[in-house]
Amino acid sequence: MKKMTCKELGGACDLVFEAETFEEIAELSKKHGTEMFHKKDAPHLEAMNAMQELMKSPEKMKAWFDNKRKEFNAL
Q1: Where are the domains of the chain?
Q2: For residue range 49-58, what is the model confidence (pLDDT) as tens digits?
Q3: Cα–Cα nearest to 25, from 48, 52, 55, 4
Q4: For labeling, which of 9, 36, 56, 72 is most exposed (least CB within 10 Å)?
Q5: Vertex 43: Cα angle to 25 and 5 (nearest 5)
């Protein structure tokens, strides 16, 4: 089981996610982000805005995901 925090995955807090695969941990992070969005949590909303900017460039988004996957796999 590998662990990464919300911050390590581009979020805004120290909540720890645990998963066997990068896809699983990404899904946990996405679910948490959705919860924080509905709570209108300001720090998470700022992090989401930064991710939306990143998503405007498919190349930058792919590089970001590739880097996070490498970080996860190195754990």
Answers
A1: 2-74
A2: 999 999 999 9
A3: 4
A4: 56
A5: 25
